[in-house]
């Protein structure tokens, strides 16, 4: 089971926060819904390790439910502030700074679906199975900002060389596939594993 999934190529909470911070001088973010932000890179890495271990050990007794999330937890408000703080340090030009994020309650916004107040999945079982300790969710968020920065630098280089007709936003990634589900299915996990394998080939 997964929760709070995001990636630099998808339309999701971190990407929306960065986009909104470009054009707004303050943002209001819910501070009472708690979860664990989980990067797709983190998920693909440990799903790959899980599959390989199960295959090499010829295990048949692991038909069970495992919760795969990093360590730690955060509200959406705390997550947004962390992202903007790291984006500022990375040199992103934002109208809304980390200090300009305003905490609000769920009752102050109109949501199409009622969100749970707390989604914190216990991840000790899969850590014990893999024989490893997961990093804090902030590690994945740091990497996310670096990935977005590299993509923007690449866009700038291509545009300067005439390779791109129209400059894209560094984090306006609405053209990529998106999902509203917080718990993904097997096909989604397989797609993530393949993506990780392509990135780390060789």
Report the structural category.
mainly alpha
The total beta strand count reads 7
Unreliable residue runs: 163-188
H and E order: EHEEEHEHEEHHH
Rg over CA atoms, rounded to whole Å, is: 18 Å
Overall description:
This protein is mainly alpha-helical and 202 residues long. The protein contains six helices and seven strands, in the order βαβββαβαββααα. It has helices at residues 13-23, 40-56, 76-90, 124-130, 137-160, 186-199, and strands at residues 5-6, 27-30, 34-35, 38-39, 74-75, 101-104, 118-119. The strands form three sheets. Strands 5-3-7 form a three-stranded mixed sheet. Strands 1-4 form a two-stranded parallel sheet. It has a two-stranded parallel ribbon with strand order 2-6. Helix 1 crosses helix 3 (76-90), helix 2 crosses helix 6 and helix 3 (76-90) crosses helix 5 (137-160). The radius of gyration is 18 Å and the shape is globular. Residues 163-188 have low confidence and may be disordered.
């Amino acid at each position: 089971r997964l929760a709070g999934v995001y990636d630099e190529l998808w339309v999701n909470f971190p990407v929306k926060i960065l986009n909104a911070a470009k054009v707004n001088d303050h943002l209001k973010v819910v501070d009472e819904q708690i979860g664990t932000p989980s990067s797709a890179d983190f998920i693909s890495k440990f799903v790959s390790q899980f599959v390989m271990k199960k295959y090499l050990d010829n295990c048949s007794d692991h038909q069970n439910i495992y919760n795969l999330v990093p360590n730690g937890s955060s509200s959406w408000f705390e997550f947004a502030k962390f992202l903007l703080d790291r984006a500022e340090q990375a040199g992103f030009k934002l109208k809304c700074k980390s200090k300009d994020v305003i905490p609000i309650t769920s009752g102050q916004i109109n949501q199409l679906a009622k969100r749970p107040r707390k989604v914190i999945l216990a991840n000790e079982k899969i850590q014990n199975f893999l024989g490893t300790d997961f990093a804090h969710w902030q590690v994945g968020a740091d990497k996310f900002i670096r990935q977005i920065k590299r993509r923007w630098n690449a866009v700038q280089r291509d545009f300067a060389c005439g390779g791109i007709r129209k400059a894209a936003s560094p984090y306006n990634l609405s053209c990529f596939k998106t999902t509203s589900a917080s718990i993904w299915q097997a096909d989604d996990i397989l797609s993530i594993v393949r993506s990780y394998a392509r990135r780390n080939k060789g």
